[in-house]
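Private note to self, pasted from the team thread so I don't lose it. Backbone tokens:
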């Protein structure tokens, strides 16, 4: 079987990027599972690579600081699982995660080459549930009852976004191909503009799925932009608003 090659949609993506406008008053940034359970090697139960963690944290800190200065609201959504009386967690009813827990060994993990656990991931009260401290500011909003790959399921994210007047949502976090991608699709289905911050996402599953996640967004439902591109778009939006006042 021939190896699949990426279809080149650069021309379409560049044209779409030129169409995008970001007004700070109509944008929110949502961080997805930017917690120690993924990004702190000392306690992570579903770790990204150390290199990815360092890069994502540094880039996220940069764009979040810029956004706060423009009064763009920041919402942190994080996975927190209860321990059940049966001994497992709220992951234990998902057939795929059940199977993954049974077959786990040196070769069979969700995180290639790194130890990880489904049943012990982000148990309520564990250090893994803590947001990376340098990414949090008291002015931010926190949603801490995410249970699955989609940040909208079972949470009040949609109500909060609408309350803040957000029409476009910029996503960052872990993992590019699961939680970021799932949440982006739901945001699209709820009529939000979707932007994924390419400098601030990574996948514990592997670089191939990271690339897949970004390609799927950029070619199907939204925009994939660097920090610099988002800063430029927000600054242009600020200037437009200033001229109207």
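Design output:
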């Amino acid at each position: 079987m021939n190896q699949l090659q990426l279809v080149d949609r650069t021309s379409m993506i560049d044209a779409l990027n030129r169409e995008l406008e970001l007004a700070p008053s109509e944008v929110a940034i949502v961080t997805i599972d930017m917690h120690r359970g993924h990004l702190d090697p000392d306690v992570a139960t579903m770790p990204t690579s150390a290199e990815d963690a360092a890069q994502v944290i540094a880039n996220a800190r940069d764009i979040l600081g810029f956004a706060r200065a423009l009064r763009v609201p920041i919402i942190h959504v994080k996975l927190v699982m209860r321990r059940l009386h049966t001994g497992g967690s709220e992951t234990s009813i998902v057939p795929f995660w059940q199977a993954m827990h049974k077959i786990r060994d040196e070769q069979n993990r969700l995180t290639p080459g790194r130890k990880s656990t489904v049943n012990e991931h982000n148990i309520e009260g564990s250090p893994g549930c803590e947001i990376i401290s340098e990414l949090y500011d008291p002015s931010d909003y926190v949603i801490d009852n995410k249970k699955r790959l989609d940040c909208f399921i079972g949470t009040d994210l949609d109500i909060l976004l609408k309350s803040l007047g957000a029409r476009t949502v910029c996503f960052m976090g872990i993992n590019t191909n699961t939680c970021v991608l799932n949440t982006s699709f739901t945001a699209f289905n709820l009529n939000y503009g979707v932007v994924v911050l390419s400098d601030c996402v990574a996948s514990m599953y592997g670089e191939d799925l990271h690339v897949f996640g970004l390609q799927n967004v950029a070619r199907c439902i939204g925009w994939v932009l660097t920090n610099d591109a988002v800063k430029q778009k927000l600054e242009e939006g600020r200037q437009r608003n200033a001229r109207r006042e």
